[in-house]
Amino acid sequence: MDIWHIRGGRRLCGTASVQGAKNAVLPILAASVLTGCETRLSNCPDLMDVDGSVDILRCLGCRVERSEGGMYINSSGPLRSTIPHDLMSGMRSSVIFLGAVLARCGEAVMAMPGGCELGPRPIDLHLSALRDMGAHITVSAGNIVCSGALHGASINLALPSVGATENIMIAACRASGGTVITNAAREPEICDLADYLRKMGADITGDGSSTICIGSFSPKSSVEHSVMPDRIAAATWLCACASAGGEVAVDGAVPAHLVPVTQALREMGCTVDEYPGGIKICAPDRLRAPRPVATRPYPGFPTDAQALLMAATLKAEGTSVFTENMFESRFRHVPELRRMGAEISTEGRVAIVRGVPSLHGAPVTATDLRGSAALLIAALGAEGETVLHDNCHLRRGYEDPVKVLTALGAEIR
Ligand code: EPZ
């Protein structure tokens, strides 16, 4: 259990560098087992979720060496095709290994990923797509058992699922014949994965649009790739500055990845300017409520930034409205924010925030990764000390939030 002490009321000033993207590196690490190649990653974030993926790679039989921001993976040896339960339960997103292991080994066995704080996290779209590609999949006693040679297919996703799109892209690289995914997810992390797969020798087009085509595959023996910047980490530092006040340059942020977030921050009265290689934000003395925010698949407002922006609106003049369309229970940070004096009411998928003149520090408990970041953001804009009890949620997705925020003038220990 991490216990963070945050003394609010201090304006932030300076530059924050953005880490490599968690949600890009995780599928890339899974895809690295597709062929017996060598992969050299740079800008690889040092996160608990990356640790979990490395444990899985090593358990499968890959050789992995890590250095500062770098990672070397050699998946040339014979690989095991079973991921033990304890490694799966540590990180539900490891279902992303399913397509890669099945495509490489012809079989894959792993525990059903559990739900998480955000609610049930079904994988029906992943399984039905792999079945369409010829996989025989049984789910029994909490295990997924897959086998079979994969062939290309035309797959229309009922939902533009990020994980399902990634699993299909990865598996399709080694399927016989071409695959077309319609209603595919369009997140930038999908494009980063596609860039990596193309460097591995895949013929992929359409990534970033709703229709992705995966054709022939001519494996390369070694691949080098630099992981894209983490747009949600960038959003976190922008919202932290809005909440605490001040002026911050977020180095490495890609403006095109954050349009709905920067638009909302501008509606709140922040000056948000793009500069070559980043985004600079300057917060007004008093924020005002943004127009209603509804989370949507990319390029809509990202669900991962909902809690972050909400934390920045708590003292904004007026009423802010948030609709969470992506996950069933992604307002678990609300009761904790109320303990700091926030006035938020929720009804189903809608949260209504009435701006208050000030917030006060309080003991609060993190509920999930982005909810924990939201509590940090609110604490920076609160009077007095907040004690954040965090059972490793932050570490799953942020390299070193204390270092980043302390460098901007925040008082955190
Ligand atoms: C990815 O999760 C991200 N995680 C999430 O970030 C992010 O919130 C989410 O995409 C949406 O953008 C990683 O990339 C590791 P989905 P994923 O499949 O792939 C439903 C964070 O904080 N669904 O796009 O699991 C699902 O229940 C994390 O960094 C099905 O019904 O998200 C959800 O309601 C949190 N059946 C919706 O689709 C399926 O088979 C979107 O899920 C798959 C998904």
Count of DSSP H/I helices: 14
Write down the Rg: 21 Å
The portion of residues forming beta strands comes to 25-35%
Low-confidence runs:
none
What integer is the average pLDDT? 96
* Ligand names: ligand EPZ
Task: Tell me how many strands there are.
Answer: 24
Instruction: Give the termini distance in whole angstroms.
Output: 14 Å
The order of strands across the largest sheet is 22-23-1-24
Category by helix and strand content: alpha/beta
Helix content: 25-40%
Biggest beta-sheet profile: 4 strands, mixed
Give the assembly state of these chains: single chain
Anisotropy-based shape: elongated
Q: Could you describe the 3D structure shown?
A:
- Helices cover 32% and strands 27% of the residues.
- It has 413 residues and is α/β, with parallel strands linked by helices.
- The strands form six sheets. Strands 22-23-1-24 form a four-stranded mixed beta sheet. The protein has a four-stranded mixed beta sheet with strand order 2-15-17-16. Strands 4-5-3-14 form a four-stranded mixed beta sheet.
- Helix 1 packs parallel to helix 2 and helix 4 runs parallel beside helix 6 (162-173).
- The longest helix has 14 residues, at 231-244.
- The model has no long low-confidence stretch (mean pLDDT 96).
- Ligand EPZ is lined by residues 22-23, 26, 93, 121-126, 159, 161-164, 185, 303-304, 326-327, 369-370, 397.
- The site of ligand EPZ has 23 residues, from helix 1, helix 5, helix 6 and helix 12.
